[in-house]
Amino acid sequence: MDTEPAVPRAMSSRERMAVAMACGRADRVPVMCQLSLGHVFLHSGGDPVEIWHDGEVLADALCTMQRRYGFDGILVNLPGRDPDWRARVARFESADSGWRVHWRGGRVTDQPRDDNPHVTAADGKPLTVPLERVDPESLFYVEPHDLEGLRTIPPDGFPPWQCDTLRAVRARAGEHVSVHAEVFSPFTQLLELVGYQDALLALIVDPGRALACLARLAEGAVHLGRRYADAGCDALLVSSAFVGAGFISRAHYERFELPFVRRVVTGVKELHPALPIYVHTCGAIGDRLDLLEATGVDGIDTFDPPPLGTIELADALAALGGRVFVKGNLDPVHTLLRGDVAAVRTAVRERLELAGRRGGYVLSSACSVPPRTPPANLLVLREEVERFDA
Amino acid sequence: MLAQLAEAIRSHRPESIAACRALAERALAAGVPAARIVDAALIPAMADVGRRFRADEIFVPEVLVSAKAMQGALDVLEPALADAGREPFATIVLGTVQGDVHDIGKNLVAMMLRGAGLRVVDLGVNVAPQRFVAAIDAHRPELVGLSALLTTTMDAMRATLDAIVAAGQRDRVRVLVGGAPVTAAWAMSIGADGHADDAAEAATVALRLLGR
Ligand code: B12
User: Fold this and answer.
1) A267: confidence class by pLDDT, cuts 50, 70, 90
2) Looking at this predicted complex, what is its ipTM?
């Protein structure tokens, strides 16, 4: 007896993202942008202080934004939060420009209405540590976004709530949305720990110590990536923002970032071979796509278009030859923030024409969506991917 | 010796940081006037570093090493420069405007300006217009440099210029603006005197505004 030919069913967002991240062609191009926290503060309707400090509230806000914009995935870009965080607060202050949280330990968080909070020590000094005072052997992971600021986490030192926000997002978003977690690349961790300038200087004046730190920080990232995978993320973003040609040479990338991101990828994949892992590198990456690919990642994110970036999407697709998935390329500032709906539509169509039929493409802003991006501009992305395949 | 010093600055090798101090000391001991060491070694070397940075031949870490080496030599020379009555020929008050905390680029600009022989008063990041105004009163600079990396804080650039005008300081200073989103057209529209795309050009434009 003949069976009916299977009626093609629309994929769920999670399936669609999974196909694209495996470089395949889904029922339509998936769409998923990384939102700046400022955008979430301004547009989710939640209380910004609560969103930053409380993982459950952040989870609500992220899911609200995902539903509003029709995104196929959510990036959970903050760690879980201590459920008892209020007990550590001495007092709150509010001003026109935002809020200030005074911690019992003396640190102070300044939280603008539309931007990332910033934590300083009681004496107003930055929390970075001079490289010569860092013992590489004691390092494991550097968390820049802990509630009380920069925090070095020793082996086995991740708090019990580390994965709670991820779990809360999964519980709210359900089984049909792709949920991504984020770890910082060893290089990013080092820059956050010792300060951008000193870390960059160290590549030349103290490379041995820098390399020793990076080797340790890679282990922390492996450990955290595995924990997020255990907690059910569908993909892992490795934030590697400071390694474009605006910062370092190819040679320095090869020596100070490539082997350590590769270690993160292989380390996580040892236990989670099917988990897609992608790097997020902003700015000028046109001269080093081969090196990014050599880290072993499944995908590359942002592809800032020129002038910030240095490669056009068509050339990037040709260079990568469908071996890794590509996410991004919509100019966050000139198109999404400053453009109107018509300009966004044109830019989206251009991307879809170039990348939409070949699979392995996730429509997204390059880098994060700036805080004051008009929501109407973001709605165009989903509209256009649906129209494109219809 | 001067050629060696210039070469050490250009080399951005780790040992150049210590070497430049030693070479500056040796040059002074050999009777070379401090001003000549600055003019014949430090400034041309840093100009060269700036050119290579613009051409993507070297990157931020290399510039940082060169700038640190240059600064080491300058520290050695400064007492002698002061004795000889040679002050830096101009001062710039520099800062990242209010609401903006990006400073990697601004710091590079400060280094290149020092390399070009200016005194730099660096106000840091998130600098309110009134702090620029107060610093102009306190330091009497010829130049003011404003950095902004965010399109949203470009408006703070305009507000800073307005505050400088309101304080009656505008005819005393020339204003130079920069940062990734800042264009020449924007600079003109807010009434700035100059604009540069990168740290090397910042030094060139600063010298031009000073009539050098
Ligand atoms: C590093 C960085 C950060 C770091 C800053 C650390 C620090 N201490 O500086 C952190 C993580 C804190 C950060 C935060 C944010 N950032 Co940011 N950041 C960057 C990044 C990756 C690099 C900037 C940089 O340092 N470049 C290297 C230096 C050497 O270049 P440069 O700054 O352009 O400087 C050169 C020239 O511009 C010029 N110049 C600079 N200043 C001056 C001044 C004068 C007088 C002159 C003449 C010349 C001049 O000379 C310099 C040297 O050659 C860029 C993206 C990119 N790849 O460029 C985004 C970027 C600048 N950031 C951006 C955004 C949106 C943010 C946030 C709002 C993100 C958020 N919260 O979600 C916050 C805002 C924080 C704030 N209130 O300022 C956007 C800005 C978009 C826009 N145009 O509005 C960018 C472009 C990323 C993007 N594609 O969206 N960021």
Assistant:
1) very high
2) 0.92
According to DSSP H, which parts of B30-172 are helical?
34-37, 43-54, 60-83, 104-115, 129-139, 154-166
**What's the rounded mean pLDDT across residues A57-80?**
98
SS3 of A117, please?
coil
Ligand 1 mean position, distance from CA B149 (Å)? 5
Per-residue pLDDT for A7 more than 70? no
| Per-residue confidence (pLDDT) for residue A8, from 0 to 100 | 61
Q: How close B103 gets to chain A, by Cα (Å)?
A: 10
Contacts of B107 in chain A (CB under 8 A): 197
Take residue A75 and report the two structure tokens written for it. 């990036």
Contact B34, B53 (CB under 8 A): no
Strand residue runs (E) in A232-324: 235-239, 277-280, 299-302
Residues of A in contact with B60 (CB under 8 A): 200, 246-248
Does residue A130 have a pLDDT over 90?
Answer: yes
- Chain A environment of B59 (Cβ under 8 Å): 245, 247-249, 252
How many Cα atoms within 13 Å fall on the side-chain side of residue A139? Answer: 26
Hey, of B11, B16, B64, which one would you mutate to test binding to chain A, going by the most A CBs within 10 A of its CB?
Answer: B64
Say what the pTM is. Answer: 0.91
Residue A94, CA distances (Å) to A99, A136, B124 in order: 4, 40, 24
Compute, in angstroms, the gap from residue B103 CA to the centroid of ligand 1. 8
pLDDT at res. A1: 47
Distance between Cα B180 and ligand 1 center (Å): 7
Mutate to test the pocket of ligand 1, among B51, B102, B160, B174 (most ligand atoms within 8 A of CB): B102
Calculate mean pLDDT across residues A327-350. 96
Residue B117 has pLDDT above 90, yes or no: no
Are B9 and B46 contacting, i.e. CB atoms less than 8 angstroms apart?
Answer: yes
* Pairwise CA distance, residues B94 & B141, whole Å: 10
Cis peptide before A259 (omega within 30 of 0): no
Q: How far is CA A182 from CA A194, A225, A239, A240, in A?
A: 21, 8, 7, 11
* CA separation for the pair B195, B205 (Å, rounded): 7
Q: Is the pLDDT of residue A161 over 80?
A: yes
